[in-house]
């Protein structure tokens, strides 16, 4: 990647998925992880993607997308729930660093989604602030139930779509960047067993690049 040439949203998306394919194939290149890159990025950063993902310990962004220093601006919360601080953290690289791509990354066997499903099913309560996380995931679980979705991967995908919609509804800055063709917001679902990231939904990408995987 040439830092002198800004990437389009589509180019950034292709670059991200290329790294995931290397990771899945067991052939990572570990780019931008040496002393030269450390020195290059010390004065300033120019990440090509914002990665807003679940805090799950198995979703280490730079590993599963085979990237390095200065490539990804990573924001993570349990169940990728978004409050004001998260929205501001996502808006910062888009508005200040001109990052062209925002990725919402969900995954199978998500504990936050499982807890929200249990809360909806039988009123199971969670201790402390974990209950706040569950409350923010619950609308996705209810929407999935209304749509007749019952499989884990279907509910995870619904939660990813809900988060993408929420970002664009609550952030005028993101919505304006997407409508102006300067950014894209995409949702991916990660499979823990094989390490693949599947496209669930996309806003701001050309039709061919935005077709969800089967």
UniProtKB/TrEMBL annotation:
Belongs to the beta-class carbonic anhydrase family. It is an enzyme of class 4 (lyase). It catalyses: hydrogencarbonate + H(+) = CO2 + H2O. PANTHER family: CARBONIC ANHYDRASE (PTHR11002), CARBONIC ANHYDRASE 2 (PTHR11002:SF79). Keywords: Lyase, Zinc. Catalyzes the reversible hydration of carbon dioxide to form bicarbonate. The keyword Zinc applies. This is carbonic anhydrase. SUPFAM superfamilies: beta-carbonic anhydrase, cab (SSF53056). It comes from the Bacteria. It holds the Pfam family Pro_CA. InterPro entries: Carbonic_anhydrase (IPR001765), Carbonic_anhydrase_CS (IPR015892), Carbonic_anhydrase_sf (IPR036874). Its EC number is 4.2.1.1. Coiled coil: none annotated.
């Amino acid at each position: 990647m040439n830092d002198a040439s800004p990437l389009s949203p589509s180019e950034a998306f292709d670059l991200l998925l290329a790294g995931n394919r290397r990771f899945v194939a067991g052939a990572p290149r570990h780019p931008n992880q040496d002393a030269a890159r450390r020195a290059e990025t010390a004065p300033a950063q120019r990440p090509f993607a914002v990665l807003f993902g679940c805090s799950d310990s198995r979703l280490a962004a730079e590993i599963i997308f085979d990237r390095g220093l200065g490539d990804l601006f990573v924001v993570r919360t349990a169940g990728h729930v978004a409050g004001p601080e998260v929205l501001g953290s996502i808006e910062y690289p888009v508005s200040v660093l001109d990052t062209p791509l925002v990725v919402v990354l969900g995954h199978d066997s998500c504990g936050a989604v499982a807890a929200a499903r249990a809360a909806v099913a039988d009123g199971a309560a969670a201790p402390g602030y974990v209950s706040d996380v569950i409350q923010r995931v619950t609308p996705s679980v209810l929407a999935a139930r209304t749509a007749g979705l019952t499989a884990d991967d279907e509910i995870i995908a619904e939660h990813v779509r809900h988060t993408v919609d929420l970002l664009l509804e609550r952030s005028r800055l993101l919505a304006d960047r997407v409508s102006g063709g300067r950014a894209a917001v995409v949702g991916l679902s990660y499979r823990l067993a094989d390490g693949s990231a599947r496209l669930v939904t996309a806003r701001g990408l050309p039709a061919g690049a935005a077709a969800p995987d089967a």
